[in-house]
Design brief:
The chain contains 13 helices and 17 strands. With 460 residues, it is an alpha+beta fold. The longest helix is centred in the middle third of the chain and has 20 residues, at 271-290. GO terms for molecular function: FAD binding; oxidoreductase activity.
Length: 460
């Protein structure tokens, strides 16, 4: 019998035939109708990709690229069209241990890759907390982790890649010889073709072993949370990782407001610290293992316990426990439908964008009873790609929202329009795999890839 492998969405499977009709938007709308393709291609190699794209070009078709379907911005769906699934394009092509580099196929699940690299005392610099994210999908949009203030976005760690164009030609891009071309492909959401392979820069690390100390600040005051998190994001010091969360959760007629910001620092690798990590994360992972597999009343209890576990995060943790923190605790397919909307804020606009986003959410909550709860997940980013040159500090503001029936599809469109308008006014960007306006001009203004645009990359 196969051992249980945790998932943060017990309610559905990424890899079933049925899943090709959905994207991550099903988490926010459980009644959403499938948008099914007519043809599904499952290439395994670069040569397969060439054959597929040569065929679709001759047929006058533009296929959609899909890995695990995490986009909620209508980027991986193709109604009665053709979809290229990269699920079979997996595995390591070459591992260069002396130079800490690895070449992989684009459909490789990063969590699986990190486990394999651990055997060689190597690890990915940036990895998502969700254990189904693939390399190609992550590179196509950016990729953020609690270590992004040190290493940038996932795509900043890509040294080279092979792209198969819509016409079926293989083009090699390399950071050493063509950084502009590489940057144009990275973060382009698959508008130029399909990434076949990529070479990644790694770090020498033992993520499942090395412990860090959590310097945690907890507050119920939003002004203090913004001030403290902004200070640490702007000057992280020797922090190895950092992240924060602001939560507003209604309890009866009262509103629980609670925020915490954690910065993780190197610490003595003591037996006591290891004991604390194992006990506390053992409890939190037990919650995650039960989530999605329990009675409805218990699911509600587990959801609250999980959210409190994220706020009151343990004092010591392995690097891997920090990386996979929330995904190991919360099941997104249980309880209230959830919607993620992500803003990338220049650091000098952090407070303005935080408060502006909060004002928008508060208005929709008050006027339309749109949210069961609202929360902001905060991570620091220092990315040369995002800055379009020398790396500058940014911050991820991930809105993690419990959705009520009051947020109709029409109101969701209005909410997204307000968020996009705020980003444009404040010089912020959107994470393009979360829902944005469908207007091509607006998308171009909020797309962080805009500094790398060319004429052949329109939003259509």
């Amino acid at each position: 019998m196969q051992a249980y492998r945790f998932t943060s969405h017990e309610g559905f499977d990424h890899d079933s035939i049925d899943s090709f009709g959905y994207d991550w938007g099903r988490i926010g709308d459980r009644a959403t109708r499938p948008i099914r393709p007519l043809k599904i291609y499952l290439p395994e190699t670069t040569e397969d990709l060439v054959a597929v794209l040569t065929e679709t070009h001759l047929l006058g078709q533009r296929p959609t690229i899909r890995s695990k379907g995490h986009s909620s911005n209508d980027l991986v769906l193709n109604d009665r069209g053709a979809v290229i699934g990269t699920q079979m394009m997996t595995g390591i092509v070459a591992l260069d241990e002396p130079n800490a580099q690895v070449t992989i196929r684009s459909g490789t699940v990063l969590a699986d890759l990190d486990e394999e690299l651990a055997k060689h005392h190597l690890g990915l610099k940036i990895i998502g907390d969700h254990n189904h994210i693939t390399a190609g999908g992550f590179a196509s949009v950016g990729g953020i982790s609690p270590a992004s203030h040190r290493f940038g976005l996932f795509l900043d760690t890509v040294l080279a890649l092979d792209l198969v164009t819509w016409e079926g030609a293989v083009v090699h891009y390399d950071k050493a010889t063509d950084p502009a071309g590489l940057n144009r492909v990275l973060g382009s959401c698959g508008r130029l073709g399909v990434i076949a392979t990529m070479t990644l820069d790694l770090q020498r690390v033992d993520k499942w072993v090395e412990l860090v100390h959590n310097r945690r600040v907890i507050t119920r005051d939003m002004t203090r949370f913004i001030a403290h998190s902004g200070k640490i994001i702007a000057d992280p010091g020797d922090a190895v990782m950092e992240r924060g969360v602001w939560l507003e959760y209604p309890i009866g007629k009262r509103m629980l407001t609670l925020g915490q910001f954690s910065s993780y620092h190197a610490t003595e690798q003591s037996s006591w610290a290891r004991f604390v990590d194992r006990v506390h994360y053992g409890y939190l992972h037990w919650i995650g293992d039960r989530a999605g597999r329990s009675a409805a009343w218990l699911e509600k209890v587990l959801k609250v316990l999980g959210m409190l576990g994220i706020i009151y995060s343990p004092k010591y943790a392995t690097l891997k426990n920090v990386e996979t923190f929330s995904d190991r605790i919360i099941d997104s397919s249980e309880g209230d439908p959830l919607r993620m909307l992500i803003v990338l804020a220049p650091m000098d606009r952090y407070e303005a964008l935080f408060r502006g986003l909060h004002a928008i959410l508060d208005r929709f909550r008050r006027d339309h009873d749109a949210f069961a709860f609202i929360s902001f997940y905060v991570k620091a980013i220092k990315s040369a790609w995002l800055s379009g040159g020398e790396a500058q500090p940014f911050c991820e503001l991930m809105l993690y929202l419990g959705i009520r029936p009051g947020l109709t599809p029409e109101l969701l469109t209005a909410l997204v329009a307000d968020i996009d308008a705020l980003c444009i006014a404040q010089g912020g960007f959107r994470y393009m795999h979360t829902k944005t306006s469908k207007n091509a001009d607006i998308r171009a203004k909020v797309d962080p890839n805009s500094v790398h645009y060319s004429a052949d990359m329109p939003w259509t």
